[in-house]
Design goal:
mainly alpha, about 70% helix
Length: about 210
C-alpha cells in the first residue's frame, strides 16, 4: 500500500498547479496512514484515534481537490477537509463488525453510548454547514452543494439510528463483540433505509 501510494504521488505530482501545497498534504496524509497502523490491537487514547481518523479522512479528500483544475481558497479547503473527516467517521461506523474481527480500534468500535456519539457526529455536521456558509459563492450554489454534502453524512446518521435502536433506553450499548454480524451491518438496500436517507438528506441540507 505504501509503495502504491508513493508511486501514485510521483505520477500525479506533475499535473497539479500548487505543487508545494500538494507535497505538504501528501506528507501529512502519508504520516496519518502510517500512524493508523497503530490502531491494530491498540491502547491508544481516544484523542489520538480521533486525530488519526480526522487526518486520514480530511487529508485524503483535501488531496483530491488538487486533481481538479480549479483554484480553491481557505474556505473551500476547509470544506474539503471537513467532509473528509465525516466520510472517514461514516466508513468506520459501517465497518464496526469488520474492524472488530480485524482487531482494529476505531472511535465507533469504542463507542459505549450511541446518543453521545451522535452528538459528536452532529458537531462535525455543524462544522461542515458553517464551512459551506463561509464559502464566497452565491447562496444558490451553496444550497445545491449543501444538499449533495447532506447526502454523504446522512449515511452516518442512518448507522447511528441503528445503533440507537440497539441501545434503546439502556444507559449504554451492549458489548459489540457479543452481537451477531446482522446487528452491526447497515444494509442500505433496505427500502426503509433508503427512505430514511432521503428524509435525512433534505433535513440536513438546510444552511
Amino acid at each position: 500500500d505504501e509503495k502504491a501510494f508513493l508511486q501514485s504521488h510521483l505520477l500525479l505530482k506533475d499535473f497539479v498547479k500548487d505543487k508545494e501545497a500538494y507535497e505538504r498534504i501528501t506528507h501529512l496524509l502519508y504520516k496519518a496512514q502510517i500512524e493508523s497502523k497503530k490502531q491494530h490491537q491498540s491502547q491508544l487514547p481516544d484523542e489520538l484515534i480521533e486525530q488519526i481518523t480526522f487526518y486520514k479522512g480530511g487529508f485524503s479528500v483535501l488531496l483530491c481537490r488538487h486533481y481538479l483544475d480549479l483554484d480553491a481558497g481557505a474556505a473551500e479547503e476547509d470544506c474539503w477537509y471537513t467532509i473528509g473527516t465525516i466520510i472517514q467517521l461514516t466508513n468506520d461506523l459501517f465497518d464496526i463488525y469488520k474492524d472488530l474481527q480485524d482487531d482494529i480500534d476505531t472511535l465507533p468500535d469504542r463507542m459505549t453510548n450511541a446518543y453521545t456519539f451522535e452528538q459528536f457526529f452532529h458537531s462535525r455536521i455543524t462544522a461542515m454547514r458553517a464551512a459551506i456558509t463561509a464559502m464566497p459563492h452565491p447562496q444558490k450554489e451553496k444550497e445545491v452543494f449543501a444538499l449533495a454534502m447532506a447526502g454523504i453524512y446522512s449515511f452516518g446518521l442512518i448507522a447511528l439510528e441503528q445503533l440507537k435502536q440497539l441501545q434503546g433506553d439502556a444507559m449504554q450499548l451492549p458489548n459489540f463483540k457479543t452481537l451477531p454480524r446482522k446487528a452491526l451491518i447497515v444494509d442500505m438496500e433496505k427500502p426503509g433505509n433508503l427512505i430514511k436517507w432521503l428524509r435525512l438528506t433534505y433535513r440536513y441540507a438546510q444552511i
